[in-house]
Amino acid sequence: xxxxxxxxxxxxxxxxxxxxxxxxxxxxxxxxxxxxxxxxxxxxxxxxxxxxxxxxxxxxxxxxxxxxxxxxxxxxxxxxxxxxxxxxxxxxxxxxxxxxxxxxxxxxxxxxxxxxxxxxxxxxxxxxxxxxxxxxxxxxxxxxxxxxxxxxxxxxxxxxxxxxxxxxxxxxxxxxxxxxxxxxxxxxxxxxxxxxxxxxxxxxxxxxxxxxxxxxxxxxxxxxxxxxxxxxxxxxxxxxxxxxxxxxxxxxxxxxxxxxxxxxxxxxxxxxxxxxxxxxxxxxxxxxxxxxxxxxxxxxxxxxxxxxxxxxxx
Length: 314
Known about the structure:
39% of the residues lie in helices and 21% in strands. The chain is elongated. Strand 7 (188-190), helix 8 and strand 8 (214-215) form a beta-alpha-beta unit. The strands form 2 sheets. Strands 3, 4, 5, 6, 7, 8, 9, 10 and 11 form a 9-stranded mixed sheet that branches. Strands 1-2 form a two-stranded antiparallel ribbon. It is built from 10 helices and 11 strands. It is α/β, with parallel strands linked by helices and 314 residues long.
């Protein structure tokens, strides 16, 4: 074996096709196929089986995968050590996050980190789903619940609060809400039930409402519905300062607590660069959640939110 063949192997695993791997490696699919065949011959085992869904790992391929990923991490660590970049935050880093976090928290946090490290490029991928780090869809991901399987490093970033809320125009035009029982006569804004990708996002039981009248798989779309006076919905407290006129409803009766978790590939712990970025993200997220939740608590709105305070010691 040599490292180049393992690199091709990893590209096929992540792309699930020869053509996709070729695009990632900037070579043609035929070359990828020959390199995979050479590796299989060297190991004496078939590593992939082709199916209608693409290239899937065989049992032997699955056994090789963690070793190939460890080799990849070792080469990256060696490059950082020899170039000195391990002590800087430079290069490109991609962070996957649910859209609530991506819209209302990460822009400020990542802008501060990039201001302190001009050589760093951060890409924020906002999607309402779980990210696959094994396929390198992102370098690290933020989730609302910790995964229970996979070779991953998981750390809790920050707790955050949610409350039932509605726009003042909606509340003025509809019957008063004095208890949970009154919610039965009001329209609820929430998630599309069969598109909830994490059980922590199923808020309906918390409100005891009978159903969702307006739904979206996106937190941002739900917030726009509430701003339009379309109904009531569960809202992140850290999003309230961005939505003037949207106020809490029954805050003493309906309140939820959730957490954001940072998920990384286990082998990435060997990279000082990624370790320092993870630490910076954690500090920035905790400060920004605290700042925005304080603004929400005192009823202040901000049209253009102040950025998070720069994280020291990066």
